[in-house]
């Protein structure tokens, strides 16, 4: 019974907040901050993966020149891969910004065109 009463109270509070418009939508700034946080987390994950792989390689290494070359090749590959992923993320974010700006500009232009057509229609009917 207590749980039902608590659930109903929370439901009424949430409904009241929504009715008053208290729940806010994410702004571009908060979305950018979330993307930056995700990028940072992804970068840290990659670094941890690379360190783990290096430790595994060292554990399996017999110290020969071939193993050393293999390890340095893997390090270079990981750095290249990480750089490519960063570049792709930046390109993707830039494309999204450009798309949003184009969409907004198109909407404004269309609204202007509609308003101009309405003005012409009014002047013709008068």
Helix content: over 70%
**What best-fitting shape do the alpha-carbon axes yield?**
elongated
Q: What is the first-to-last residue Cα distance?
A: 69 Å
Please state the oligomeric state of the protein chains shown: single chain
Helix/strand/pairing category: mainly alpha
Strand content: under 5%
Number of strands: 0
Low-confidence stretches: 17-23
Report the mean per-residue pLDDT as an integer.
77
Descriptive terms for the model:
126 residues, mainly alpha, 89% helix, elongated
Sum this structure up briefly.
The model is unreliable at 17-23 (pLDDT under 50). With 126 residues, the chain is an all-alpha fold. The chain is 89% helix and 0% strand.
Care to describe what's here?
The chain has 126 residues and is mostly helical. It is built from three helices and no strands. The protein has helices spanning 2-19, 28-60, 65-125. It is elongated. Residues 17-23 have low confidence and may be disordered.
Task: Explain the layout of strands and helices.
Elements: H1 2-19, H2 28-60, H3 65-125
């Amino acid at each position: 019974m207590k749980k039902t009463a608590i659930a109903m109270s929370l439901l009424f509070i949430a409904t009241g907040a929504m009715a008053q418009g208290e729940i806010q939508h994410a702004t571009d700034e908060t979305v950018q901050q979330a993307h930056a946080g995700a990028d940072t987390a992804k970068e840290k994950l990659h670094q941890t993966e690379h360190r783990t792989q290096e430790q595994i390689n060292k554990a399996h290494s017999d110290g020969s020149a071939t193993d050393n070359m293999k390890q340095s090749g893997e390090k270079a590959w990981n750095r290249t891969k990480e750089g490519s992923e960063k570049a792709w993320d930046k390109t993707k974010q830039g494309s999204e910004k450009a798309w949003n700006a184009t969409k907004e500009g198109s909407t404004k232009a269309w609204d202007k065109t509609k308003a101009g057509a309405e003005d012409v229609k009014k002047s013709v009917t008068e």
